[in-house]
Amino acid sequence: MRKSSKIMLAVGLGAAALAGGTAFTGTGVTDNAGATQFLGGTVSQSVTGATLSNVSYGFADAPANTEVNSVTLTFGDATGGKTPTISLNNGSGTAFTCTAIDGTNFTSTCSPSTSGTYQTGLSSIAVTVS
């Protein structure tokens, strides 16, 4: 290979690695759904008051996975047994209620406040621990 070809190949591989690294560094999104069905493809997340290490979603309509009926939050450290709140789709989604954060594995499970309901078209989740 000529020198210019080697440089172009190295630049191309570097750019691909950089793009791949940024595409897969979202904070704790767990993709339990099929490739074309995971909540429209992306979920915007914001977290206040804690370190969130993972978010996983449970679905009422497996295997279609479009009706979210539970959200499990895993935190990076102890949060003193506090109870998180979540807001789906900027507050316009189904209301969910969360359990207090478990002191052993730092998890909280959130489910719809009204039994038998679920959230479709999820595009954002905001998590607050105070």
Mean pLDDT: 74
Stretches where pLDDT is under 50 for at least 5 consecutive residues are 1-40
Q: Please count the helical segments.
A: 1
SSE arrangement, N to C: HEEEEEEE
Q: Beta-sheet strand percentage?
A: 25-35%
Helix content: 10-25%
CA radius of gyration is 19 Å
How many DSSP E strands?
7
- Cα-to-Cα separation, first versus last residue: 59 Å
Biggest sheet strand order reads 2-3-6-5
What structural class should be given to the helix and strand makeup?
alpha+beta
- Overall shape: globular
Q: Biggest sheet, in brief?
A: 4 strands, antiparallel
Chain-wise SSE layout:
Elements: H1 3-23, E1 44-48, E2 52-59, E3 68-75, E4 85-88, E5 96-98, E6 107-112, E7 124-128
Parallel strand pairs: 1-7
Antiparallel strand pairs: 2-3, 3-6, 4-7, 5-6
